[in-house]
Amino acid sequence: MKRVLLPLLVGALGLAATASAGTLRYAEDRAPGIVHPLFTTSMSEARANELLFEGLFSDDLQLRSAPRLAESYEVAPDRLSMTITLRNGVTWHDGQPLTADDVVFTIEAMASPRNASTEAGRVGWIASAQALDTRTVSLTFRAAEAAPQDKLYFKILPAHLFEGTKVERSGSFRTRPVGSGAWRLTSFNDDASITMSKVEGSDAGLDEVVLREVSDKNYQAKLLLYESLEALVRVLPRDLATLQNDRKVELYPYQTNSWWYLGFHQDKPALKKPEVRQALTHMVDVDQLLAPIGTGDVLTGPFVRSSPFYNHDVPRAPHDPDKAAELLTAAGYTFNGRWLGPDGKELTLRVATVSNLETAQDVLINLQSQLQSRGITVTPEFLTPAEWKQKVWREHDFDIVLSQWSFDRNEDIYEQFHSQGARNFLGYRSPEVDRLLDEARTSSDPQEKKALLRQVHAAVAADHPMIFLWTLDSYAAMSTKVKRVVVHPFYFFTWAGDWAL
Amino acid sequence: MTLLLLCLACGDDASTSQPLPTPPAAQGSYGWVGEVALSPSEFGATIAAERRGWTALHAHDYRTATASFTEPTHRARPELSMALLHHDLALVGDEAASRLFDEWAERGGLPEHGAARAVAALAAWCSGSDQAAQWAAEAPEGIVGASALAAIAEGTSPLEAPTDDAIGQRLALHVAARRGEVETLEAAQGLPMVTEEAHGFTRAFYDPCAHHALAAGWEARAARSLDASSWRGMRAWGDGGLSGRLFSPWLDASDLLAEVERAEHAGLVGVQGERLDALGLPLATGDDPQLARELVRSLDGHLDTWRADLLQRSNAEGGALLNSLGLVERFRQEWLVVFARHALHQGHPRAALAVLQQARDVGEPEVGPANSPSLFALTAAAEIRSGHTRQALDALEPLSRSFTAVRGVQELVGDLAVLQGLDRQGDSKESQ
Questions:
Q1: Closest Cα of chain B to A407: distance in Å?
Q2: Considering only alpha carbons, which residue of chain A is nearest residue B360?
Q3: Is the ipTM of this complex over 0.90?
Q4: Do B290 and A150 touch (CB under 8 A)?
Q5: B350 vs A contacts (CB less than 8 Å)
Q6: Which of the listed residues B31, B68, B98, B362 has the most CB atoms within 10 Å of its CB?
Q7: Which residue of B has its CA nearest to A152?
Q8: What are B336-363's pLDDT values in tens digits?
Q9: Which domain, by its residues, includes A26?
Q10: Is B283 within the bounds of a domain?
């Protein structure tokens, strides 16, 4: 049966069984709704950015900062400023020269509150940027910086395609981006795929990179085995053994310090009360939610278990419906077969997740069933990527979200848990956690930073802003036809210029 | 399941296994893998008396295996495996400690007071670094472990100058461990060697030399079990039939004996086996991950042929053993781990990492029959040497669930990972 279905599926998805030589076709669970470095919120967008855009610096193979658009730099003796000279002869994909004005524009556009860039936090440490000539930029900092180059990874945008520093999220750039990377976006296709072609003169080994959205993860592995794809960014744990045993496929660890969570909107009346959040934590059977996805490590806080910041002393909240009932009663709720709030209305929760990610849908339906059986009504909301950005990121129009965060090797959770964090759409506010996060950010002692963030773990776990779910062993899979592959541990494609088919 | 299958092959009536008419040359070319699959009765007879020990060894549960084996030459197998695991962990610790203290001092901020410089000196001393004396000389007056530091500064062993402070007490455990009395030091390694109150937190330093002492101690125990003066006593396994090679990276006795003579280290025995050499594997990978992956693919091609041939020629019992004990996969991983260790010794961390990534059974997240503890330890060492410190912690996490003594190395590597990220701007995204 499956043998018959798969070719049909391949056809239906528009996936050619063979690609032209030099074309890498890779699967994402969800295609980026937009490709715009100023408004990047998801890993699929970040990975596409990595192919299309460049930063002043990027990681070399040893994960040391290496100049990318920068050719050289000099930090002032007081560490309060630096001068950067750009590489000569770099052009944008539209042929315009890349200049110091583009760097200044990008920093100012990211920092400008009216743009509400999701990346604003990445330039907050820069006090001012000035173009000294077409290839030279001067940056001044708000405080002394030991290694400012380590913070200059954000992607540079072409100033000439925008008016002033106002950048509209809905502008045409989001679907017709112009970068300076080795590949240019040639088509944003109707089937939610994106085609990127090698820029003339680039020495990249891949002629073309095609991003395909394959939201049904059950088929991603099959498409790779059927040679209708060359790469999967994330393999479902249950497919790992099959792919590892196939001689035409190789697996690459791709952890991204990622964890799943159920986040409570803490400005919603019901969820403002910590007792209610804690009750829900005890009511949900996390192991049962995880089982259909595969094996994973259940977490007690906002770090993966291998993190230096993970606090192993924080106990796991047990699945305990009786305790949950006690807590709801203490919070003024009554039970008559359904839980009724202090206002007499039935406790109903809208839980949002993305519409085209099958694993998340399975978890949400399972959650709905669990809470329903305990007397709480759950209304699932499956949002498209555009709706997700609108309702979750901008309007905060949800009760609970089911989602996942990925972190680079810094595992900096400031943006998610600080009251001023740009990714804190749950509205979590704790003066104690703010203080600890602020101190951790400025600490120059690794052991102190570790201790501070372990305290954050404990404090956040006690506040129940989320039900911390799990982390999964995460691997990418690649056809053996793709040579010289080294996967960046976060951005994936940083070294894709060396890959070849 | 494993135990069940081991029992399946070694029931009370071993005569139920039918010997197969196997061409001796072909059987020999697959080494112990072929011996088990084609002569399950011989396998049954080998493990019959010490079934619990062999089951534990198959599961990479060295502690249980050591406690279970009564025959000394058998017991030496898990003892030497423990020595190699600690040797691999020492490699991780050495890499992490030298980078941590060097980079911390270079960027400024290494605590002037307290035990930091004493621990740096100890770490440098046990890894054989020239910097040991310099660290010791820079340590402030009256520091914990002062007499040990004085010895290091003078170029003598700190183990000969134990004092009664926290470091001295820990070093006294080293002396005992090196004699083979490893238990106390192993238990202590899950706890800090020195703690001191800093600004609002408790600073903790773990013993950077414990795994060196534990490696030496387990090696001494293995040598004693083999009635020898060093690990080279493992040549005795060449006389012991199947038990000397079962689940090992060397295929047969002649490979073992040849390599014991030429290997620099017990952990490298098996890497240049003549049986494998005859396959013409592309061993010259240098530090090229692509070549390393091609080496693994080449090996897999041969092993697929072995598996198919053995399945065709084995009886039902032999076929069941081959599949359920994962005999081919076990040899594959044992050999790839030794190859990776060799690559690290050669200064080829990226090739080692590529091999180890391929060697791991990703369907099994824990240490167990499918994944050895050294696989995880060496992966961590290769990650650090490749500059991927945070990824080393991912490798150590599964190991820590089986070996609490790994805690010290985890904290050390964690300190380094945090230090290396202090100046970076962190990035996060939704995972989709």
A1: 4
A2: A244
A3: yes
A4: no
A5: 61
A6: B31
A7: B425
A8: 999 999 999 999 999 999 999 999 999 8
A9: 2-31+181-254+476-498
A10: yes
